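Each letter names a residue; C-alpha cells follow underneath. Both lines appear below:
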Amino acid sequence: MPSNPGDRGGDTGLEAQQELRDLKNQVAAMRERLETANADQQTAVVRAVSQAAAEAALLKSTITALREELETERGRRDEAVTAAVTQSQDLIAQLKGTVAALRDELERRNAGAEESLFQARAADRSEIAQLQATIRQLREALESVQSR
C-alpha cells in the first residue's frame, strides 16, 4: 500500500491527538503532584504552628508555675525575716530588762554599801569617842591617884 499524503496527515493527527492526550495526562499528573505538595506543605505548616502553640502553652504553664514558686518562696523568706526580727526584738527587750534589773540591783547594793559604810564610820566615831572618854576618865583617875 502506497502511502498517501492524506493518510500521513491522519497519522500525524492521531499522533498529535495522542501527544496532546499525553501532555494533558502529564499536566494532570503534575497538577496532582503540585496539589499533593501544597497539601503536604500546608500540613507541615499546620503541624509546625500546632507544635509552636503547644510549646508556647507549655512555656506559659512553666512560667506560671515558676512565678508561683517564686512568690511562695518570697512569702517564706518574708515570714522567716519577720520571725527573726520578732525574735531579735524579744531578745533585745529581755536583755534591756536584764540590764535594768542588774542596774537596779547594783544601785541597791551600792546604796546598801554606802549606808553600811556610813553606819560603820558612825559606829567607829562613836567607839572612838567612847574610847577617848574612857582614856580621859582613866587619865583623870590616874592623876587623882598620883596627886594624893
Q: What stands out?
A: The helical segments are 5-147. The two ends are 211 Å apart (CA to CA). DSSP finds one helix and no strands in the chain. The first helix runs from residue 5 to 147.
